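Lay summary. Proteins are chains of building blocks that fold into shapes, and those shapes determine what they do. In this project we predict the shape from the chain. Here is one chain we studied, written as its sequence of building blocks.
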Amino acid sequence: MRSYVVGGAVRDGLLGRPVTDRDHVVVGATPQDMLALGYRPVGKDFPVFLHPDTHEEYALARTERKTAPGYHGFVFHTSPEVTLEEDLVRRDLTINAMARAEDGSIVDPYGGQADLRERVFRHVSEAFAEDPVRILRLARFAARFPEFRVHASTLALMRAMVAAGEADALVPERVWQELARGLMEERPSCMFAVLRDCGALARILPELDALWERQPPHQDTASAPPAMRVLDHAAARELPLEVRFAALLQDLDRDPAAGLQLVMAVCKRLKVPNECRDLAQMSARERDAVRNAMALPPDGIVGLFERCDAFRKPERCVRMLQACACAGHGHPGEAARLPQLGQQPRLQDLEQQPRLLRALDAARAVNAGEIAARCADRRERIPAAVHAARVAAVEAALQDVRD
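And here is the predicted shape, written in a compact code that computers can read:
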């Protein structure tokens, strides 16, 4: 019985990156052997055990055979006779098909170290084509390691998979899971570039794929659309997932109403979590109001806040403003600075989103409870009175800046 650290922990260690999770493969053991040593079983489809002390995962070496379309159609086989090389050959990329023995030596039967040096994503074997999730995983790795390129043979294999309909077998929950992880990587635009290059983006996110076809006449359709620069800017600012997702989708169509419908379709199809869905829809709906904030009168600004439920959920409104601010970075020279909630902008920065933040601070300072008490005899007047007070507060705050 021998155990090895495998996969991402080996890859990241060789790249000098932090290693947080370690997966292990055990060769020459049976489930009974693991139980006798105190390991706790957790695997459903094949034997995986938790170490009694470290609680790290230890999987018995296994082989697999595809029996049906999609990524659920596999039969796994484990036995003490399965070798480490047989286990590693079923993995997706050579850089993920390395192992580190207990003495620290690296087992690299498929050239993972060479591909790390060359910064190449290369599939280990033709078994890559049996699991469509691997297309998403490779694209996600491209967002994490933007200096890597996809090997020509692997890209050809991915294109063949898409043409064969393998990408159509992906369930929405798994697509969202991989996309969400990729959105949080260093340069998420690389994920979408890979998905488009192999044809998968048109199958899983046709609304986004269409942006490449909407490029101005002086740019070819191979050039990244502004949405990709917007997304990378959101990532560079280390904004949360819901802001990155909203920033990505806010310009799916030049017409805001049509764009909102497209965002709603994406969220429904991918079963996007409520927090991300709501912010994406709000950003698409209000994008023009935010971009034209300098022309909005106080009454229009308060109306915007009311539509966004900003007085109950101010942080979500700020997230929406952050997503809209990122859009300025889709076109060079249009960037807008965005302070945090409660932080007063300098005079020279008071435009568009910062203007709205100042207005939001002023409107939120209105004591709605006091107004309601004064109007207790005529309750139907309360909403109008609160609205009027907020408009007056916003007008005064913006007048102070002009003065």
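What the prediction tells us: The two ends are 79 Å apart (CA to CA).
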